[in-house]
Design goal:
The chain is an alpha+beta fold. 18% of the residues lie in helices and 32% in strands. The structure holds 1-deoxynojirimycin and calcium ion. 1-deoxynojirimycin binds next to loops. One of its GO terms (molecular function) is carbohydrate binding.
Amino acid sequence: MKHPASRPLTAAARSGQRLLLLCLLLLGLTARAEEVKSPNGQLTLSFELQAGVPTYRLRYKGREVIKPSKLGLELKGTSSLQSGFTQTAAQQRSFDETWTPVWGESKTIRNHYNELAVTLTQAETQRTMRVRFRVFDDGLGFRYEFPRQPKLDYFTIKEERTQFALAGDHKAFWLPGDYDTQEYSTVTSKLSEVRGRMKAAVTGNASQTTFSPTGLQTPLMLKSQDGLYINIHEAALIDYSCMHLELNDQTMVLESHLTPDAVGDKGLIQTPANSPWRTIIVSDKAGDILLSKLVLNLNEPTKFKDVSWIKPVKYVGVWWEMITGKSTWSYTNMDNIKLDSVDYRKVKPNGTHGANNAHVKEYIDFAAQHGFDAVLVEGWNTGWEDWFGKHKDYVFDFVTPYPDFDVQELNRYAQSKNVRIIMHHETSGSVRNYERHLDTAFQFMNKYGYNAVKTGYVGDIVPLGHKHYDQWMINHYNYVLEKAAAHRIMVNGHEAVRPTGLSRTYPNLIGNEAARGTEYESFGGNNADHTTILPFTRLIGGPMDYTPGIFQTKVSAYNPQNTSFVHSTLARQLALYVTMYSPLQMAADLPETYNKHLDAFQFIKDVAVDWDDTKVLEAEPGDYITYARKAKGRSSWFVGSTCDENGRTSSIDLGFLEPGKKYVATIYADAPDAHYERNPQAYQIRKLNVTRKTKLTQRCAPGGGYAISLVEAGR
Ligand code: NOJ
Ligand code: CA
């Protein structure tokens, strides 16, 4: 197709163009640095064109957070958007709003920033791009904007070249760069040590496509030697590929590295378009990083008119028993079936199928008895015998149950007890197949009254060559969210891209996995400090379906062949309902185990999943986190504390409680001899009367923690 703007210019137009060029050049030469400060004046963003190259710099209380760093993009088959720019406009404005999330860590969220938008023109190519900066009290967001224009209609990104020039060899909490998974243990090291530790970091993990000895994922959490906490991530990842960071370990400059698609391209853009926001959260207090709402604020408000169907969910599930190997997702064995002609009513069952009518009813009864909203049932549908074998492009149709799972009756039974069944769509990575069935799958859910789906993308993506985090897949995840919303369905995506605050726009995105969850406690274990890091890294983008609540810490109790154990004390498992914020919380262990510890289980029953207010009482990434949260619409507060393998004494002040009120505190703590390896199930529960003047000290075992419920006296 001939480009409409490539027709020959007339002589008059040509001389006009030369004049414009000259003006732009002059403008460029006289361009001065632009500066904008955060509303409280503590952060300063400067923008400057250095010999035609756009650069920015960020300072916090006079300290360098990001040294002058280059901005721009390299394009495929045409000159780059990195240099030769003149500044043709610069606009500033201030913005201040308070909005109410559908669900969240606080009742309202303040979105307050000062903005600078710089328009840049390349005289030679007559292309224009804008860089928009928003400076909040807690950090900076900026993005590229490509207005619609004749000389920049559509283009292919070869690489985004956004730099983050760090001021030193910071301590980093990092995951190896990977286009397909974030299910790694976090490595804590200096940036200069990344290269040396990369190989070990990858070994033994679910690594698929690590791309470089110094490639890192976001959210990346950093701490400078002089005590600045810095978090780098992105917000509003829409129609663009997921950003990784490439570290230059000589200069300590991080540079964006986008996920390539099947042919190595990094994004197809048609103007008008915007990149996602690049985010830098910064503070000298670790707790401020946890409380930052910057990533959410950089997303667009939801356009959903009716959100009454979106509700936080506390659930149990036919799940951990399969993860541990006690039962199976599949109904029969592979030997018994031929995929193209199988009649499951005629094949021999394997006798270990978890999602059978009688067993699912036990879970429904348990959920109803203890006030849970829902039961997740995995392995309900045909195909699990060969779910990521060579037939995976056809294996699941998302509507055919195994013969021992009566969809209609089980949903009727559940709903008669005020419980919902959560649908499970494991796609086995075959996105083509999933999109083929999506409409009928969601209609099927509507028909039987399912209102939430857990999706899954295990294995290589089909069409082959695509990566879990490339632009095509990003568009798929967002397409599923939109389709689901049209059917009033909430989504919890596993193995999808890590969240970037999109739940502001799509509040039906109530959960994601996109990190190493509790399931790994059955696959060899998570590090004891894992939950002291995730809130600073993965959770910066949005909630995680971490699936806590494992009381039987020895996996062999369910499956003698499995020697894994949970790297946490039982008391700490309770704390996670408070420290791992999510509007979707699972009590992941088996009913038979909870029935043996009903006193501790009481905390899981009581804890809220939606909050009016959140405070960070203590925090240091990698070492400990203590949160206090006020239940939405209730006077109760809940405290959770998690610590690393060393154990510690936590000291907290209950000053967050309402003046003049008395509360009963129930403290679920590690017993004095508890230890995540040696004695994980030893806990103690005590009650005491407290007010906002009370100060508490509590010993946490190695790999331990505690949980407290604070209920107004007399309630
Ligand atoms: C991996 C998910 O994280 C897990 O929760 C699920 O049970 C399996 N895939 C099977 O879909
Ligand atoms: Ca530590």
